[in-house]
Amino acid sequence: MDDPRKNAEGYHDPTPYEAEKHIQAQIRGKRARVAGNYFEAMISGTCDYYRSKGLAEIKKTPEPMKPLGPKNRKGQFLACYTKQAQPDYGGTLKGGRSIYFEAKHTDDERIEFGRLTKEQRDDLEHHHKLGAIAFVLVSMGMTECFRVPWPVWRDMASIYGRKYMTRDELQAYKVPVVAGFVKFLDKLPPEVVTVKDLTEEELVQRLAAYENTGCEPGEIAEAVKNAAKEAETRTAATMAECIAGAFKDVKEKVERDPMAFFKGDAQ
């Protein structure tokens, strides 16, 4: 088999090989941008449909930019993005429940956990804990779309044993794609869409639980379980620290007043 990094005479010449790789990378990048823009257009069209039906008010979050110079005669100016922590889309469902989600497209047969930055993950977690519907909307090859609940994406490594999900594993979260619309609110259970009216006692319990633990009441048991597992790994180190501290106290007492220590009168 011919080595693409050598020329016709057999001499090492990586220039054509590297140039081809560069061109292929450019083609893949352009294809991904086009697909991503089309996916966003599908979502925006769906949001318009939900708005027209009075079902939801959901908008794409504008990316915050900082101007780097004055406008030119055409009104154009140079700017840079200042942060990427906000979810791609956010809004409110009929009934008052808020909704936030990230939209990610891939042409591969799997979606990587790392497609979300730490800032994006932290922001979705924050909205989730406050009671919002949070998820990641995934497009695969523009043929199938999946609404992955935020807790599933967040715990991907522990659920699947790795930091990616395959197309087969995503099937449980598939949502319909009809005539260019992504029906990402399809099959949401009524208790998710409707905001429950809490009694005063339930509201106090919920606020107290979140203030003290950072968890909803129903999440506390799992949080305690996870904390217990983490504690097991720290037990030996903690015991060693306690023993070392005890030895240090004894050593200081002996050095301070040896006779009093052995008589049992040391303070």
Write up what this structure looks like:
- There is one protein chain.
- With 267 residues, this protein is an alpha+beta fold.
- It has helices at residues 15-52, 118-129, 150-154, 156-160, 167-170, 190-193, 200-213, 220-256, 258-263, and strands at residues 56-60, 65-67, 79-81, 89-93, 98-106, 110-112, 133-140, 144-149, 164-166, 174-175, 177-178, 181-182.
- The strands form 4 sheets. A 6-stranded mixed beta sheet has the order 1-4-5-7-8-10. A two-stranded antiparallel ribbon has the order 2-3. Strands 6-9 form a two-stranded antiparallel sheet.
- It is extended and about 90 Å long.
- The relative contact order is 0.08.
- The mean pLDDT is 76.
Low-confidence runs of at least 5 consecutive residues: none
Largest sheet: 6 strands, mixed
Could you spell the SSE succession in H and E letters? HEEEEEEHEEHHEHEEEHHHH
Mean pLDDT: 76
Given helix and strand content, the structural type is alpha+beta
| Spatial shape | extended
* C-alpha termini separation: 84 Å
Major sheet: arrangement of strands: 1-4-5-7-8-10
Number of helices: 9
Beta-strand content: 15-25%
Report helical residue fraction. 40-55%
Number of E-type strands: 12
Over the alpha carbons, how many angstroms does the gyration radius reach? 28 Å
